[in-house]
């Protein structure tokens, strides 16, 4: 793997957290590149083993992509990385290798531009990135949360609702052409306008089949009410359950953004048979960055499936300042969307992350046989006590619920 060149100067570094104004970490585009550039090779190898885990007993392998994809990446200046997750060879099953891609991107025009121009510019920005995925033979591609617009949901301004589209709207039609052209399943998270139910808005992921057909949709289950990210002004919790979509390339599910903080949400997709769960997100460094590499990886381990985590990039500045109800002064942006998209595997291995500040395409080959192999190894489905959890949850939902707490009888006894 090539080491990233340092960018920017040390004068841009904030003293408290060493995050530069350009979004880099001490001048590097990711933690992985920072460590690679500053540790001796034998130390970097050991640190990588601990941070990224081991896939089938060895370090995760890089994947060679066609020159056509590299040319597109260079011309349009986006990060391009590729890795391979293997599985043990089996006697009764052939390998089930699927090539999966994640795209992270910043918006293309200022939020003050006309909505029509903003959307068209995002389409044009993503076109070469999707072409690079297609020319690389990607089978399943997932875009970031609300990819077709700025992430305006916390301004509480209703005019941003104009970006909402029906399931078969402009964004879907744009991606259907690529799905047909490259024989590729595409997951498209959008702001949905539900014309059949009074034009209600939802935060929705549309699954487009490799023939350009619409397989189905999933609506965001958990809506954040944290600081700037209080999105219930626009949409409420979804009503589609935890669907798993059987595609030509495997069984996939979509855990949209804030749902990654809820372990039972991850569990439900696993119980429904998911082999790959995508987590399209929009989150900023001050709020969640320490959690970002942990939660998806833990979900992959606990549920014996692969996870693809996508986060948008950049700082989106809005024309009208807003407040968060947290006592902080009014401001015009949420902070820096730190990218860092990555894949996690059921054996606890994971890829390095994409850049913290650049658009990027991350590609991974993954042998889906690894899912069953880890189920057999750890036996989580056999050793789980679902009946105990079900009883506990049923009890918890009752108004007269009392926690099961056994107090030390001497705890409140007065000393003689």
From TrEMBL:
Gene3D superfamilies according to UniProt: Carbon-nitrogen hydrolase
GO molecular function terms listed in the Swiss-Prot or TrEMBL record: beta-ureidopropionase activity
Presence of keyword Hydrolase: yes
Annotated PROSITE patterns: CN_HYDROLASE
Gene Ontology BP term (one): beta-alanine biosynthetic process via 3-ureidopropionate
Every CN hydrolase domain range: 98-368
Keyword Ion transport (UniProt): no
Name of the top EC class for this enzyme: hydrolase
One Pfam family per UniProt: CN_hydrolase
Reaction equation(s) it catalyzes: 3-(carbamoylamino)propanoate + H2O + 2 H(+) = beta-alanine + NH4(+) + CO2; 3-(carbamoylamino)-2-methylpropanoate + H2O + 2 H(+) = (R)-3-amino-2-methylpropanoate + NH4(+) + CO2
Keywords: Hydrolase
EC number: 3.5.1.6
Pathway: Amino-acid biosynthesis; beta-alanine biosynthesis
InterPro entries named among the record's database cross-references: Aliph_Amidase/BUP (IPR050345), C-N_Hydrolase (IPR003010), C-N_Hydrolase_sf (IPR036526)
Transmembrane segments: none
Family under the similarity heading: Belongs to the carbon-nitrogen hydrolase superfamily. BUP family.
Protein name as it appears in the record: Beta-ureidopropionase
Lineage summary: Eukaryota, Viridiplantae, Streptophyta, Embryophyta, Tracheophyta
């Amino acid at each position: 793997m090539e080491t990233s060149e340092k960018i920017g100067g040390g004068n841009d570094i904030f003293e408290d957290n060493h995050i530069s104004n350009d979004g880099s970490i001490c001048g590097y585009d990711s933690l992985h590149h920072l460590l690679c550039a500053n540790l001796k090779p034998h130390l970097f190898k050991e640190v990588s083993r601990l941070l990224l885990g081991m896939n089938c007993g060895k370090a995760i392998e890089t994947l060679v992509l066609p020159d056509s994809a590299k040319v597109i990446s260079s011309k349009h200046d986006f990060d391009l990385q590729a890795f391979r997750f293997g599985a043990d060879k089996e006697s009764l099953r052939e390998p089930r290798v699927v090539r999966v891609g994640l795209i992270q991107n910043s918006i293309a025009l200022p939020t003050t531009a006309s909505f029509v121009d903003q959307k068209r510019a995002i389409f044009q920005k993503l076109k070469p990135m999707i072409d690079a995925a297609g020319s690389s033979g990607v089978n399943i591609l997932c875009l970031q949360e609300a990819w077709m617009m700025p992430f305006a949901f916390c301004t509480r301004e209703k005019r941003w609702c104009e970006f909402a589209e029906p399931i078969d709207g402009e964004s879907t039609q744009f991606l259907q052409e690529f799905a047909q052209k490259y024989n590729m399943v595409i997951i498209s998270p959008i702001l949905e306008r539900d014309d059949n139910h009074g034009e209600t808005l939802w935060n929705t992921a549309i699954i487009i089949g490799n023939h350009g057909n619409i397989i189905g949709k999933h609506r965001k289950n958990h809506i954040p009410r944290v600081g700037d990210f209080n999105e219930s002004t626009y949409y409420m919790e979804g009503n589609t359950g935890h669907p798993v979509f059987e595609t030509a390339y495997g069984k996939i599910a979509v855990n949209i953004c804030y749902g990654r903080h809820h372990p039972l949400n991850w569990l439900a997709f696993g119980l429904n048979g998911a082999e790959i769960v995508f987590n399209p997100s929009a989150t900023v460094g001050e709020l969640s960055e320490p959690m970002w590499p942990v939660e998806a990886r833990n979900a992959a381990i606990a549920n014996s499936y692969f996870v693809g985590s996508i986060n948008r990039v950049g700082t989106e500045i809005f024309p009208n300042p807003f407040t968060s109800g947290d006592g902080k002064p009014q401001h015009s942006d949420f902070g820096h969307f730190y990218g860092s998209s990555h894949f996690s595997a059921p054996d606890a291995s994971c890829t390095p992350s994409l850049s913290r500040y650049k658009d990027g395409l991350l590609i991974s080959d993954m042998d889906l046989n690894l899912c069953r192999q880890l189920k057999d190894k750890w036996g989580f489905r056999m050793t789980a006590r679902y009946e105990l959890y079900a009883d506990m949850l049923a009890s918890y939902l009752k108004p007269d619920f009392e926690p099961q707490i056994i107090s030390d009888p001497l705890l409140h006894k007065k000393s003689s």
